[in-house]
Amino acid sequence: MAEKKASGGARGGIAKPVTPSPELAAIVGTAELPRSEIVSKMWEYIKKNDLQNPANKREILADDKLKPIFGADKVTMFEMNKHIAKHVK
Fold first, then answer.
1. Helix (H) or strand (E) run with residue 44 in it
2. Which tens digit of pLDDT belongs to each residue from 16-46?
3. For residue 64, how many other CB atoms are within 10 A of its CB?
4. Of 61, 17, 19, residue with least CA distance to 36
5. Using CA atoms, how far apart are residues 10 and 16, in angstroms rounded to an integer?
6. Residues with Cβ within 8 Å of residue 60, at least 6 apart in sequence
7. Which of 4, 32, 87, 89 is most buried by a 10 A CB count?
8. CA-angle at 84, arms to 81 and 88, nearest 5°
9. Which residues, 6 or more positions from 34, have their beta carbon under 8 angstroms from its beta carbon?
10. C-alpha distances in angstroms, 43 versus 21, 39, 57?
11. Cβ distance 38 to 26 under 8 Å?
12. Three-state DSSP class for 17?
C-alpha cells in the first residue's frame, strides 16, 4: 500500500506546484510552478545573462534580480535550491 500512496494520486515534493515570491516571480513569472520548473527557469535566466563565473562554472554571480533571492553576490549551484526554497510557498 505504501508504494501506491507514494507514487500515485496527489503530486508532492518537487512536482507540487508552488507560488514564487515577488522577487522570484521577477525571473520565473507569477504562475504556480513545480520546483523543478522553477529551477529550470532559473538556469535559463542564469545562462541567458551569462551569470556563471567563467573561472568556476559552479558559481553563480548574482545580478540585481538574483541578489534579493540569494542574499549574496555569488552562490554555488548547490546552494541555489536552498535559496529558492525560501522564496516559494
1. helix 35-48
2. 899 999 999 999 999 999 999 999 999 999 9
3. 7
4. 17
5. 8
6. 46, 51, 52, 53, 66, 70, 74, 75, 76, 77, 80
7. 87
8. 135
9. 11, 14, 15, 16, 17, 18
10. 17, 6, 12
11. no
12. strand
> How distant is the alpha carbon of residue 38 from its chain centre?
5
What residue has cell string 525560501? Answer: 86
Q: What burial letters (b/e) apply to 66-83, b meaning 16+ CB within 10 Å?
A: beebbeeebbeeeebeeb
Q: Which cell numbers in the block locate residue 74?
A: 555569488
Report the C-alpha gap between 36 and 1 in whole angstroms: 27
pTM of the predicted model as reported, rounded to 2 decimal places: 0.83
